[in-house]
């Protein structure tokens, strides 16, 4: 099985009552902004790049709030999903890649939990819970 690392950004509004989500064209499903880590790219770089490509927004990422794992037998892929806490620092919300993303929306936490049931204790636990320190030590 091929290993695939995927980095996501958990972006909330100021009140922490809404989560920014994107609707993926191919699967017609909702997810946080994110995608596969490219060769020679760090996890945090991928999260920042994917947020920009999918939403038009510039973000700064902090610690990791969730790590999920899944094996996709049909694709012969073993995926590791890393979700960073993120904050908007610039940009304009817009779809840059209409072939990949059909919609951007600010979802209430309950709606986010319903449309993206990937986190065992829901988004509230990610938003208000602890994060794991992430430190990119760079290339040595």
Note the gap between the termini: 28 Å
Largest sheet: 4 strands, mixed
User: Which descriptor suits the 3D outline?
Assistant: globular
- Count of separate DSSP helical elements: 3
Name the strands of the widest sheet in spatial order: 4-1-6-5
Compute the average pLDDT.
Answer: 94
- How many beta strands in the DSSP annotation? 7
Strand residue percentage: 35-45%
- Return Rg in Å: 14 Å
* Structural class category: alpha+beta
- Binned, the helix content reads 10-25%
Q: What's the SSE pattern?
A: EEEEHEEEHH
- Uncertain regions spanning at least 5 consecutive residues: none
What's the layout of helices and strands?
Layout lengths: L1 E10 L6 E7 L4 E3 L2 E3 L6 H13 L1 E16 L4 E15 L9 E8 H7 L6 H7 L12
Parallel strand pairs: 1-6
Antiparallel strand pairs: 1-4, 2-3, 2-7, 5-6
Structural summary, described in words:
The chain is of the alpha+beta class. Helices cover 19% and strands 44% of the residues. It has three helices and seven strands. It has helices at 43-55, 109-115, 122-128, and strands at residues 2-11, 18-24, 29-31, 34-36, 57-72, 77-91, 101-108. A four-stranded mixed β-sheet has the order 4-1-6-5, with helices on one face. A three-stranded antiparallel β-sheet has the order 3-2-7. Strand 2 (18-24) and strand 3 form a beta hairpin. It is globular. The model has no long low-confidence stretch (mean pLDDT 94).
């Amino acid at each position: 099985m091929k290993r695939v690392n995927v980095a996501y950004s958990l972006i909330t509004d100021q009140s922490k009552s809404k989560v920014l989500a994107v609707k993926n064209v191919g699967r017609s499903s909702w997810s946080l902004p994110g995608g596969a880590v490219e060769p020679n790219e760090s996890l945090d770089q991928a999260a920042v790049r994917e947020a920009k490509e999918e939403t038009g927004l510039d973000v700064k990422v902090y610690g990791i709030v969730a790590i999920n794992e899944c094996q996709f037998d049909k694709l012969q892929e073993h995926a590791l999903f890393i979700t960073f806490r993120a904050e908007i620092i610039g940009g304009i919300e817009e779809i840059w890649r209409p072939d990949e993303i059909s919609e951007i929306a600010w979802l209430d936490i309950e709606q986010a939990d319903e449309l993206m049931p990937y986190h065992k204790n829901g988004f509230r636990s990610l938003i208000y819970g602890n994060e794991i320190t992430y430190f990119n030590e760079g290339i040595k």
